[in-house]
Amino acid sequence: MDHSYSNTKPHQKGKHLSKDDRITIQVMHSIGCSNRAIARELNCSPSTIGYELKRGTVSLYTGNVKRYKAAKGQMTYERHRRECGRKSLFLRRSKFINYVSHCFHKRGWSLDACVGYALAEGIFPKDQVVSTKTLYNYVDLGLMEIKNIDLPEKVKRNTKARRARANKR
Fold first, then answer.
1. DSSP string spanning 134-168?
2. Which candidate, 64, 146, 139, 49, places its Cα nearest to that of 102?
3. What is the pTM for the complete model shown?
């Protein structure tokens, strides 16, 4: 239902609360507004307000009084955003990465041979071994001591984009 006289902008799905939104929540909550009234003002769901109030509530004095603080809510939000997302296997698998670098430089093995030998001989547990594709991605990103120029098959390949020849007619 679209009203041209509405003065609130539609809530964007997936949009996070800003610091200004949190300050609005703090002010309105302190004067006794309900979660629904705050949600109407910010044009979001009342459950979002409830979650935010739970996230940013701090105990004052001896723990008997609890109040919502926008700064605490913002700090908690930023900490959660820093810690979210998939973590890289690179740091957790550093012993295996060092083993692959050693085998590559000292024995002249390919990355695939290093992975295959480690799995076949049981040198590392299966959950500590990363795939060959992941190792090549680490080389491309420059995370390993091995460079692309050290890989003979990569040097041979022509990686230039080919352009389709236009028809003369």
1. HHHHHHHHT-SS--GGG-HHHHHS--SPPPPPPP-
2. 146
3. 0.56
Contact indicator for 144, 98 with CB cutoff of 8 Å: no
Q: How far apart are CA 46 and CA 81, in angstroms?
A: 22
At 78-123, the pLDDT tens digits run: 999 998 988 777 888 889 999 999 998 899 888 899 999 999 999 9
> Tokens standing for 15?
């949009």
- Domain positions in the chain are 19-83, 94-156
Q: 140 is written with which tokens?
A: 């491309």
DSSP class of 9: P
- Residue 167 CB-half CA count within 13 A: 1
Three-state DSSP class for 81? Answer: helix
Contact 24, 41 (CB under 8 A): yes
Cα 138 off chain centre by: 18
Q: Is the pLDDT of residue 13 over 60?
A: yes
